[in-house]
User: Which sequence fits this backbone?
C-alpha cells in the first residue's frame, strides 16, 4: 500500500532546497556567472559529466531558477532573471564576443577595418556581423561600396558606457573663489 504524502511536505523542487545540492549549486553558479552559456560548457566549467549537468539544469528549470533556449543552433542556459539573452549568448561565444568587443573599442567601422583589427578573413567577420544584426545587436549601413557596422540598442548601452560630465568630479570653490579638488579634502 502506497503512503500518501501530506500537502505540508516540502516539494522536491522548492527553490531554496534546490541549491542545497553541491553539484546543482555549482551548475547554477556557472550559469549565473556566464549567462547564455552552452550546456556542454557548463559541464566543463562545473567539472561534472554532461548527463549529470543536463539533469541538474532540468531540475533548476522546474524550480524556475534557470531557463534554456536555442539561439543560433545551440542550446543556451541563463538565470531566469537574466535580461537580453541574445547579448548574453553572443558574449558567451568567443567569435561573436570578439566582434562585439572590437566594435565597442573602434566605434562605427567598415568590415575590412574590423577584419584587420581581429586578424580574421572579411567573409568570416561579415558572417558574424550578419548573425549579430539578425539579433538586433549590430546595425549595418551601406555607405557607397562600404558597409559601416556599429553596436545597436542594448548592446551599445551595455558595452560602451559613456563618460558623462555629471559623473566627473567637479572642483569645489572656497569662499575666496579659489578651488580645490577631491584630493585636497
Assistant:
Amino acid at each position: 500500500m502506497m503512503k500518501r504524502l501530506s500537502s505540508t511536505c516540502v516539494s522536491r523542487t522548492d527553490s531554496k532546497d534546490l541549491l542545497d545540492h553541491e553539484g546543482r549549486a555549482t551548475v547554477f553558479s556557472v550559469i549565473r556567472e556566464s549567462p547564455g552559456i552552452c550546456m556542454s560548457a557548463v559541464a566543463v566549467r562545473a567539472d561534472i559529466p554532461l548527463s549529470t549537468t543536463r539533469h541538474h539544469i532540468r531540475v533548476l528549470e522546474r524550480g524556475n531558477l534557470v531557463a534554456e533556449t536555442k539561439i543560433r543552433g545551440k542550446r543556451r542556459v541563463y538565470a531566469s532573471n537574466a535580461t537580453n539573452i541574445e547579448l548574453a549568448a553572443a558574449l558567451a561565444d568567443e567569435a561573436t564576443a570578439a566582434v562585439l568587443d572590437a566594435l565597442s573599442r573602434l566605434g562605427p567601422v567598415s568590415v575590412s577595418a574590423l577584419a584587420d583589427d581581429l586578424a580574421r578573413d572579411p567573409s568570416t567577420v561579415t558572417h558574424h556581423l550578419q548573425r549579430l544584426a539578425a539579433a538586433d545587436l549590430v546595425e549595418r549601413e551601406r555607405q557607397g561600396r562600404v558597409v559601416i557596422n556599429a553596436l545597436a540598442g542594448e548592446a551599445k548601452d551595455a558595452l560602451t558606457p559613456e563618460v558623462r560630465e555629471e559623473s566627473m568630479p567637479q572642483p569645489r570653490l572656497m569662499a575666496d573663489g579659489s578651488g580645490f579638488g577631491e584630493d585636497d579634502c
